[in-house]
Design goal:
By secondary structure, this protein is an alpha/beta fold. It folds into 4 domains: 176 residues, 3-Layer(aba) Sandwich (Rossmann fold), CATH 3.40.50.300; 75 residues, Helicase, Ruva Protein, domain 3, CATH 1.10.8; 90 residues, Zinc Finger, Delta Prime, domain 3, CATH 1.20.272.10; 77 residues, post-AAA+ oligomerization domain-like (Orthogonal Bundle), CATH 1.10.3710. A 7-stranded mixed sheet has the order 1-2-4-5-6-3-7, with helices on both faces. α5 links the parallel β4 and β5. α10 crosses α11, α12 crosses α13 and α14 packs antiparallel against α15. The radius of gyration is 32 Å and the shape is elongated. The chain starts with 14 loop residues before the first strand and ends with a helix. The N terminus is likely disordered.
């Protein structure tokens, strides 16, 4: 098929636009005032999608009375926006609701399947709708962070001239994934995971709704099972409804003809479900950061919690081991050098034994590091020295510190007047200079008054006193 085919009844109809077989583009335009001829054939999560703000659960920080987004929706003031939040928090639903409220056509693209040609096709249709019918268009792009820079740029002129109102949905941080030009034209709204109480309300509505939900079946689900389901959904309304639908499909009438979702049945349905952990996105780095900061803050319990959250979510234990080694050097350092050795031992144990046995060694290391005295003196000293190394140019090594393996080098005074510290009193060459002459003497390492660094500080103080005395004559 070389050109688009359009099916429908004109304004107010349902449009299915498909392009030639070489394109992955599949675009659906829905009249938002009508429903499918057989809505019960759709998955429960789709059937129970809220149609009005009164049905919407969660996001009260955006949609409560008087909040800016709610005021914009109620006043039909469309503006381009990006919804950033975890899965199942209502990003697509909210976009549809905004389009319905504004009586605008709704065009949906998936950034996973679409390219620049598909964007242009959507824009062409939006232009025809505006020119021929005077109808506004909401262009919704799911997983917009998957579009590259040129694909994102393709929207800009048409957002600017009002051809479309752009709404993007993303689970990734827009400041990292979206162009500044696109961000400057769209307001970012952060959506939050639904609370257990909000998920419970979603479940209750689905069980009670006789038109779109499971109400006609009169399923018996006691409060404990509803709570268990809400907890297992992990803030994702779509997951909650999908799990509920699976459980409902597996129920069988008892002797009295009642259908009941039992704990045994629900436990089987929930078995194997993983908590939210995206292995590389925002949640991934947030949880790593939380574990690291819990260790730094000497809270072994919180550090264990975040570590187990990552492991439970599918994070590679060897990645966790690598981060634990980093913590040992960055935050414990010489206050307790045993921390680094224990971290390396835990890494080695994980490699040798694998999971789950090796993970106990990781837990041991995390707890030890959290309880150990803290020092970032080495970390700070390293960063300062690196800054000087990069900024001070290629300073010459002083002649007395140079190696002199050849006769010529010795004739050039390489190594001349070097003092061998082991031949000096206290094994220390008081007054010796080790920095480049142009750089002068500098102090990077300042031990803290915790752990072994107390002793290190005392020793350095004594040696520096000897240096001062040597300099004074």
């Amino acid at each position: 098929m070389s050109s688009a085919e359009r099916q429908g009844e004109g304004k107010g109809g349902r449009y299915n636009v498909s392009f030639n077989c070489t394109s992955h583009f599949q675009l659906f335009m829905h009249d938002l005032f009508s429903q499918s001829d057989d809505p019960l054939s759709h998955p429960l999560a789709d059937r129970m999608r809220p149609r009005e703000l009164s049905e919407y659960c969660g996001q009260s920080h955006l949609l409560a009375e008087g909040k800016p987004l709610r005021l914009a929706i109620e006043s039909d003031k469309l503006h381009s926006m990006v919804f950033w939040g975890p899965p199942g928090t209502g990003k697509t639903t909210l976009a549809r609701m905004i389009a319905r409220r504004a009586a605008a056509e709704f065009i949906s693209l998936s950034a996973v399947l679409s390219g620049v040609k598909d964007i242009r096709a959507a824009i062409d249709m939006a232009q025809r709708l505006r020119n021929e019918q005077g109808r506004a268009t909401v262009l919704f792009v799911d997983e917009v962070h998957r579009f590259n820079k040129s694909q994102q740029d393709a929207f800009l002129p048409f957002v600017e001239d009002g051809t479309v109102t752009f709404i993007g949905a993303t689970t990734e941080n827009p400041s990292f994934e979206l162009n500044n030009a696109l961000l400057s034209r769209a307001r970012v709204y952060v959506l939050k995971s639904l609370s257990v109480e909000e998920i419970r309300e979603v479940v209750n509505r689905a069980l009670a709704n006789t038109e779109r939900g499971l109400g006609e079946r009169d399923l018996q689900v006691d409060d404990a099972m509803r709570d268990l389901l809400a907890q297992a959904a992990d803030g994702d309304a779509r997951r909650a409804l999908n799990l509920l639908e699976i459980a409902a499909d597996l129920t069988e009438p008892d002797e009295q003809g009642e259908e009941r979702i039992t704990q045994t049945l629900l436990t089987e349905v929930l078995a194997g479900g993983l908590r939210r952990f995206d292995k590389g996105g925002e949640a991934f780095y947030d949880q790593i950061s939380a574990m690291h900061k819990s260790v730094r803050g000497s809270n072994p319990d919180a550090a264990l919690y975040w570590m187990t959250r990552m492991l439970d979510g599918g994070c590679d234990p060897l990645y966790v081991a690598r981060r634990i080694v980093r913590m040992a050097s960055e935050d414990i350092g010489n206050a307790d050098p045993r921390g680094l050795q224990l971290a390396l031992n835990a890494w080695d144990t994980q490699e040798r034994l694998g999971s789950p046995e090796g993970e106990l060694a990781l837990a041991q290391a995390v707890v030890y590091l959290a309880c150990a005295p803290k020092s970032n003196a080495v970390y700070t000293a390293f960063n300062t020295a690196m800054r000087d190394a990069r900024n001070e140019g290629s300073q010459e090594v002083p002649l007395h510190l140079r190696n002199a393996p050849t006769k010529l080098m010795k004739e050039l005074d390489y190594g001349k007047e070097y003092r061998y510290s082991h031949d000096e009193a206290d094994g220390f060459s008081a007054g010796e200079k080790y920095f480049p002459e142009a750089l002068g003497e500098r102090i990077y390492y300042h031990p803290v008054e915790r752990g072994l660094e107390i002793k290190i500080s005392e020793r350095l103080g004594y040696l520096r006193k000897l240096n001062r005395e040597a300099a004074d004559g």
